[in-house]
Amino acid sequence: MSGRNLPWAVSGKGSSGVKKEKKTPGFWIRFLNRFTIKNKLLVTLVPVILLTFLIFLLTVYFISFRETQSIVNQQADISMNQKVQLVDTYLDKLRMETEIFMFDSNVQKKLKVPKNTLDDTKLDEMETDVRRDMYSMIINYDVNVESISVKTINDDYYVWKMDSRLIHGDFTGRINQHEDIARELDGGMLFTYEKLQKGLVTLTRLIKDPVADDELGTLMIDFNLGFLDNLSSSASWDRGAEPTLVIVNTEGSIVFNSSPFDIIEAVTPGTEKLKVSGSNFRIRHTSSGTNDWEVFLVINESKLYRNIYRLTFLQVGLVLFSIILVVLVIFGVSLTISRQFERFQKKISRTSDPKQHTLIRVDSNDEFRDLAEVYNEMMGRIDNLIDTVYSKELLLKSAEIKAFQAQINPHFLYNTLDCINGLVEMNRPDDIKKTVTALASIMRMSIKGAEILTVRENLSYTEQYMYIEKIRYGDKLLFLSEIPESMMDYYMPKLIIQPLLENSIVHGISELLGKGMIGLFGREEEDAITFTVKDNGKGIPQNVIDLIESRQSSQEAEEQFSRESIGLQNIQSRIQLMYGKEYGLAIKNIPAGGSSVTIRLPKLTNDDIQKGGIAP
To answer: Which among 228, 330, 373, 490 is most buried, taking Cβ atoms within 10 Å?
Structure first.
């Protein structure tokens, strides 16, 4: 057979010389090639997810909704059976209770005695005994009884009532009204509903001697079926859709109705559906096994299924939310893939602020991983440089604080020794001893111990200092301290308040001819505490106030301040080095004479100190 006749025959030398034809891409490939990677993911995944959720949505609507209807019907049957059983149980209990009461030999013996044959004392005893028997019946059987009335064959009446405000004649008139019908029933139970109050039912029975079969009187009991409103069943009903219980006697009168409207007039034992005022009702009917009552369970289907529809709409909403969420996730993933360069550029741009930069982590094994490693290495070197510079700044700040502390201590010691020298000149050895003791305590505090103390501890040393000054100045110096108790457990640097008091005494009131007054006041703010020292001295020179508020460096202050004012600048610099520029001194002169110096400090608790919160 010749090769040229074969459909697969090719020309040339061997198969290696065959030139393969390039296959044309299919429609789907050509369609996808028109989009970017981000849009490819959206075009391929979103329709599939939408179709899946649509199928699920239809399944939820047609299957779940019908299943919910079936469950609701089962719950209605359970609720119906429970309530009917509860009514029958209660009526049986009530029948047994009345029989035990009526057939009690002691009770019958009392009912046979005419009241007109008894004197007042025995009459009171008789009525008390009968009422006690009535009350015992209620206590023993725990029924919802409102009142018990008895009429004897001698036309005597005994009434026990839960509400003492009710009129006695109402009960006697009603029992006379039911007496004839109860006599016809010959001991049977007569149930009537007189609409005295919602759920109140009246039971009337003839009292007979079980041996002689003689009539002894009539018993009437008012009991309330309102407890049926609070019956809990295994069904959980939404508000407004609870089954309504209606009880009707053989005369068609409503004995009990827990609904807010009267719809039972159109209901007969064969009625299953009812429409009233635009609402659809489903009726379930049964009969009481104890008496001739007809029991109807009325369910408002409009409200009931409205809640089911609401649940279905909620499910639909959740499905739609899930669809939107999935689409957003797909869109986010596509953006992650298509915008890697843009995100990497944003990461690098944050290096202008060393406190905001973060390391880049790339899980893919591509060029982005190499770029991320170079970037992270560079950030590590920057962090090391920052840590080195920051540590040096902390050491410098600590050294400056100690230097200011060293300036404050000799200044205070100089003024205190000057005070002791004055005591020596006045030949007051006892005061010298007390002053030296107080000075020693203050020096121990300034030299030893923590730099941060509670307000209470600082005030104790302040009081010792003021004791020294009051010894020196005597009645010429008046001192008032008003610090709220709520501030006592906050923390503050030591030797902050004492120099202000010293400044007020030495440079404020020491040259006054009259009495000098100094006040120390504390105030608690939302995020700070303040201490204000006021005096009636000569005030502080305005140039000193301006220099302190200008916040110049301590070296500049030393060149311009006098020896008397260096203490204020040292306190200002010390506070601002520790806590920042928003804290420090605020100085002003009082127009009537004197000065006011306020210290503002951060509100520090023990937890802040433990966490190292003594610096900004």
So the answer is: 490
